[in-house]
Structure formats: structure tokens, C-alpha cells
Sequence to fold (556 residues):
Amino acid sequence: MNFNRINPVIGMRSSVMVRKLFLLTIAILALTLFVSGCRQKKQAKTDQEKAQGKKKIAVVISTLNNPWFVVLGNTAKERAEQLGYEVTIFDSQNDTAKESDHFDNIIAGGYVAILFNPTDADGSIANVRKSKEAGVPTFCIDREINSNEVAATQILSDNYTGCVELGQYFVKRMDEKGKYVELLGILGDNNTWNRSKGFHSVVDNYPELKMVSQQTAEFDRTKAMEVLESTLQAYPEIDAVFCGNDAMAMGAYQALVAAGKADKVMVFGFDGAKDVIDSIHDGKIVATGMQFPKRMARMAAEQADEYIKGRRDFPQKVPVAVELVTQENIAKYTAYGRQSEQ
Amino acid sequence: MKKVCKYAVAAAIIAFLVYHSIYFENLEDIKQQRRKGTFNAAEYAREFWDNQLFSVFDKAVDVEELIELFNTNMNEAVRKYGKAPGVSRVYSYLIKGNGKILTIAKDFLEVSIRETQTNPDIKITTGFYIPGNAVRDASGLIDVSEFSDTMKFNEISGEINKIVVKEVIRPFLEEKPQVGNTIRFLGATQVSQEATEAKEFQLIEVVPIRLRLE
Fold:
């Protein structure tokens, strides 16, 4: 039956549609061929680069807005370069979406390993998985991801035990009584909870120690200053502040100086950053936990090198002990480590 | 007009269904629930205490031998007997011995293990709160890499310590120990490699796993 003869309008519409469909199919085929051609060229280029020059290692850091993480990234880079690799540092800016983009670029760019400081213990798993599937091993530094299936190894600060020790010292300095404020880190970071829970596992056994406020300042110095300024409006009479990292400890100290309370309120941090080590040395901030970013970064670079050379038997999780730094033992320590390790 | 009413009713029905189909929950709360839901640290600690820990009792080192080694060759003490889950200057040791109670304090006993028995050599923890990971790590039986989230590994220590307080320390204290009594013990201790360099000598602190009056 000839539909064109029966209804010329429908017939005309059909043939126009068929033409359009045909053109669309051609366009899709052409695009597919173009994209696969580009990928082959890129692969050929990276193969050529590999054959010609140094292998490339990527260092992905959660944020370069914090000096502690800058040291972590720079030390990893330095050690990997000493081992003969070309290294690029990527800043995730505490954003898992940016982190994902970095991983896509790293995988496409022919890097042979990733030294990785995750932004989120759960959110970062997918990124490590896709790099594993692409044959690029990932070595987590400082922070873990909540999976044992995808990273080559995870080198972590033993934050919980470090804060148990800090908590014991806190109790002693507070003489088992008083009011304090806690400033938490990023809520999606396991380190935030490991530190807080380690601290509370000790301090909560002393009923005369009262936490009047617990808020997040997201590991950020400026936010910590703002949060504590506001907290002091509601709770002007406090005896101590426990901060989940040193950047927040510095912010808290600034707020106390501005309020004229720096001599009356003790500040406790965690990290071992330069400004807090100097502050402890000067008798201002009371204590911190030394996390050894340089030690962890060097280990990650060395293990990546071993992996590339064939080793596979890495423990999945490697806790690195945190050491309590106080005004009593400050002479043993310098920024980001021990005097003896510099 | 009829059409407008029909559309209004349809829109209202759709809005009602959508409203009741979608809900918002705090992502952090969900993550915390998920973590709690799949691992029970108390059960893990119970199983460890009842069925695994005794298997390493024969590996406990005599406390007098260990203290001697600390004072003469700390590196050898670490190599032969020390355990740590990762990179650390603090090592855990499984130890055994007997001795005489010299002092009974609020949270510990001071005990002499040497023949002269005039000066204390160790402290045995008898408080109702025990911090630290001595028992978990000294056993060498629990591998941190078993756990996708190290918070679970940390929680185990807390639960083991609760068992120590409830099933070792409290029953022992109910026997009303006195100064001069002899005790036999098996326990765990954590000692820094730098302990012997400290200006003030500190007694090693033992978390008891078995503790009884003789």
C-alpha cells in the first residue's frame, strides 16, 4: 500500500523524518570515530613519553590552603623526585568533584602511581576504584578511605591513640575539672571522629569536666576564630579549648587574644604544624599531637616506587603513631617532626 | 474552567505523591548509622577475650627478664617481644610474673618482683577506667588491616578494657588484697623505646589479663 498516494502530507513527513534519522546516525558514527581516534593518539603519545622519559607520579592533596598539607604534598613530591620520577601536585580544594576531575586527568595523562590524601573517607572510594581499574595504584596518605579493596596501601596517622594521650594530658592540666569547648574538623573526614572519640574516651570519664560547646570549624583557622568568638559570647567563662587540628588551634588562640583571655584559657591542638610548635615553645598553646607528615609522605613515595618495581605485599592499613608535644618536651620537636629526623 | 480544575487536581495529586516519596536525611547521620550497624565492637572483643586471647598466653615473657632487657638492650627487647600495629616508638608486650604488693593506691598496685622485694618494679592497673591499646596490641592477634574503617579497630580496645575492669580487676579487688600479699599475674604493657632515656624513671604499667592472690 502506498501511503504517499493515500495521504501525501503523512508521506512527506515520513520521508523528511527518515532523512533526519539517517543524518543523525551518520553524525553519531562520525563523532564516535573522531573520539576514539583522539584517544589512540593520546595513548600513543603517553606510550612514547613513557618510553622516552621519566615515569610520572601524581600527588593529590585535599587542600593546599593548610600549611600542614602543603608540607605533606611537597615532601611526597621531593621524595618521589629523588627516586627518579616526574611529579605533579594536584589540589582538590576539599571538593570531591574536583578530586574526581584530577583522577580523570591523571588516568588519561599516563601517570604510573598516585600519592593520595583523600577529601572524604566514603566519597573518595570511587576515585581510587577507577584508578585501580585503569591500572594506576593509589597510596593513601594521612587519611583513609573506608574500603580495603581499592588502594595499594593506606598510611595513616593513629589519630585515635594520639588523642587518647592528648586527652590524658588535658585531664591532668585541667586538674580533672572545668569547662571546655571542642572545635571539630571536617565532618566527612574519619580523622575528625577518630580524634574526637579518642579525646572523649578519656575526658568523658571525669564528670567535673564539662564540654559547653562542640562545633565544626572545618579544620580552618579563620572559621575557628569566628566560631570561638561567637561561642565566647554565649560561654564567656571557659578554661580550655580542644581543637581537632593546629590551624583551628591558631584561630582559637587568636580569638582568645582578641577577647583578652589568652592567659586564662588553655588551647590544645593536633598536627605538629610550625606555628603551633613555635607557640608551644613560647609558652602559649599548651600541647599538640605530632603527626609526622614528612614521615608518612616519604613512606608513600617509597612504597609507590617499590610497587612500580614489582612489590605487591603491602599491608592495607599502616597506622603511624602520633606523639604528644607539650611545653615540657618541646625541645625534642620541630615543625612537622622530631629534631633528630630533619 | 473544567480543564483548569482537572489540571489543578492532577497537580495536587502529583505534589502529594512527590512530597511523600522524597525525604531528606543528614548524610553524616546515615554514614554513622551504617558504620555502627555493620560492626559490633563489644561482640568482637568478647569473642577475642573468650576464644582467642588464651592461645598466646604461652608467649608471655617473664617480667623480670623483660625489665632486664629494657635496661640493657632495648632494641633486642623490641625485636624479640615487642608488638606494634604500624610505625611507632611504643611497643606492647605480653608479660607474666609474680610479686609482692608494696603499695595499694586508688588506681594501681605497686609490686616488687625481685627477690629483695623492697622497691617496686611494676604498677598493676586497678582503676575502673583503662586507656590505651596494651591488651589488643600485645596479643598480636588483631590486624588493623582487617578493618575498612580504623575507628572499629580503635573501638575494640575500649571494649577489651571494659572486660578487664569487669572480669579481672573488680573480682580481684573483692578479695581485698593487702600490702604484703603475693600475687600472680599475666598482663600487657606498653613501653616506649625511649623509656630508659627518661630523666625520671617510670615503673612499667601492666594491664592485667589474669590476676590472683597466692
Notes: Chain A touches chain B at residues 121-122, 144, 146-148, 156, 158, 160-161, 164, 167-168, 187-188, 190, 193-194, 197-198, 201-202, 205, 295, 299, 315-321, 323 (CB under 8 Å).
